[in-house]
Automatic annotation (TrEMBL):
Active site: 426
Name of the featured protein: Acyl-coenzyme A oxidase
UniProt keywords, alphabetically: FAD, Fatty acid metabolism, Flavoprotein, Lipid metabolism, Oxidoreductase, Peroxisome
InterPro entries: ACOX_C_alpha1 (IPR055060), Acyl-CoA_ox_N (IPR029320), Acyl-CoA_Oxase/DH_mid-dom_sf (IPR046373), Acyl-CoA_oxidase (IPR012258), Acyl-CoA_oxidase_C (IPR002655), AcylCo_DH-like_C (IPR036250), AcylCoA_DH/ox_N_sf (IPR037069), AcylCoA_DH/oxidase_NM_dom_sf (IPR009100)
Transmembrane segments: none
Short name of any one Pfam family annotated for the protein: ACOX_C_alpha1
Amino acid sequence: MPSAENQQQLDIAAERAKCTFDPSQLTALFYGGEEKMKRFKAIEAMVDREPVFDRTDRYFLGRTERFKRALPMVKRYVELRNEHGLTPEEAAHFKVYIDDYIPVHLHESMFLPVLRSQASDEQLKVWGPHAENYHYIGCYAQTELGHGSALSRLETTATLDLATDQWVINSPTQSSAKFWIGTLGKMANHAVVQAKLIIKGKDYGSHPFLVPLRSLKDHTPLPGVVIKDQGPKQGAISMDNGYARFNHVRIPRTNMLMRFSQVSKEGVYSKPIHPKLAYGGMTAVRTTLINHSALSMARAVTIATRYSAVRRQGNVDLKTDLETQVLDYPAVQYRILPLLSHAFATIFSGYWMNEMYAQYNTDITKGDTSLLKDVHVYSSGLKSYCTKLGADGIEEARRCLGGHGFSLFSGMIDFHRQFLATVTYEGENALLTQQVSRYLLKLYKDVIRKPDMHLSPPSRYIVSLVNHERFVQQRCPARSMAELYHPKIVQKAFQHRAARLIFELAQAEKQGAQWSDLNLECMRLSKAHVQYIMIENFHNGLEKRYNVSSNPTAEQEALLAAVRSVYNLHVFYTLETELAEFLEDGYFSPEQAAWTRQALKDSLKSVRPNAVGFADCFGFTDKFLNSALGSYDGRAYERMAEMTEYEPLNGKEMTDERGVVWGYEEFLRPLIFGEVGAYKARKPESKL
Ligand SMILES: Cc1cc2nc3c(=O)[nH]c(=O)nc-3n(C[C@H](O)[C@H](O)[C@H](O)COP(=O)(O)OP(=O)(O)OC[C@H]3O[C@@H](n4cnc5c(N)ncnc54)[C@H](O)[C@@H]3O)c2cc1C
């Protein structure tokens, strides 16, 4: 019989042999297309060749060491970016692949996009080259100790001094100190600071200002700026999220970002053509977070699937004397494989969102803001839903790995800790659901008044509420489990549920409920609407990309069938999780609910044979995964043992050549030799 190690390699090879499609055919989907994949793979190879990005001992390092390691990474990253003329997109992939939240991350992910979108052309001419070339290292300083979500309550002020033509930036209280600002603590020399704009005593609300923080000569904090790293966090260990307070810091009037609002020398304020234009930077970041969620889920699935395929535990096959691969237990499949389907659903919605955002960017250059609302609402709704799917799903997949999942060597923990912050930044997830719901509610009210008004495709279903009597009689038309698989039936079911929740929210409001009492309704509705558009996007994207020819080759058919099985899994998992809302008004019958449960079980079974193929399709390198459990070759046990070699507790500093731990003489020996007294039971009168 092969040893457990060899059996693992046999198992992973057997999994690959039974895969019904060619996984490499799907990899480009996750890289954003063939062309990008080629370029991105070349970048990955370049990073792997650079010792400075080596991650072998990363799991053993504390915060200060991780920060110190990150500084040479920053320098080399910028050198290579410059040398190879990387586009912003390539540079972003470079940073994703480094897989450490290096402390200039916010310079490119927030500072530059905000400058590009909110500085005027003249300002960009001056600041742009400095910022693009890292002479200015920037951060985005909005959140304060006292307020994050409630932007209108930010306390930092920018008061115009007409006499000197300057803004005076001030943090009047402790709660007004900027906090959580990535890249601020140690690295940035500039910040885009959100501050309340005040002219002649009048408060015009929060606006962005370019504020120098540190000297460009020697990096010392400038007069009036108190600045420091904010301390340890759940994740993003190498990042210097920071604290800053401004004591009447003076900057030129022209340092206000003036693309959308302007203030003249005379102190005359011009407001933007649309109040939401100022949040363009956030919308862009939310859009990228959708793709980031997909890749993070895919990463967890890769590790969890490969390990569960080689991990044998429990029931023994009497013929082979082999225990069962844990991936064959339905409970394991149920906790890992839906995450695979969510990764696919999310990537398709990411494509949809990217296209909408690109269109919006083209329109806005012509002064057309018609897509602004949709872009804002859908980036918010998808960001909120997909980051939660990822944060929860990755943890569930980690737990599925048993004890080894608790080890950092699993490769499931470091990146997940970092990912967890996505549910909070760029709009706290629960709060974002209010924006989606408010938008749907408004559309509903408009449609009731004007039933023939134009609605964009994802919200067109709201029209079904115009005839409410007919709406409440709608029932799911599926007469068998097979009919439940029909995309149109699924689409209608999700539309009906979301429409009903819109109606109920409207009724609650009509009956006088305060908006702040309707949080739960908003969360429910936003989730229902986003689940609907995700299922639509998955279906449409799949048909557009993989149902390509009327006379498909066997290979194309196999690929389409495989991805359709993942689509079905996503649909039935989501339906099953939300069954109560489909049953609640009688749209689903109890029999249809039972078919849903069965269809979910069947979908898990049909994805299972291809599970390792799907794990391979994402195209992650072993170096990137940095996981003993999820490497391509399946040698999980050997790799777990190998990684212990790097543990500093096993190194010379902590263990001598005889294998004896540091501190033995002083702390352990006295115990073992009875030099610490004998144990005596405590007497009742004891004072302790
Ligand atoms: C790792 C990390 C990096 C960050 N980087 C940056 C950065 O670079 N720059 C920056 O400016 N900020 C940054 N932030 C801050 C981040 O944007 C805020 O934390 C976020 O916007 C949430 O705000 P808050 O922390 O004030 O939460 P709060 O608003 O205090 O929320 C607390 C809770 O109250 C709920 N809540 C709040 N208001 C309402 C309401 N009206 N109705 C119902 N529920 C409500 C929320 O849902 C949440 O559950 C970062 C945060 C993290 C964790």
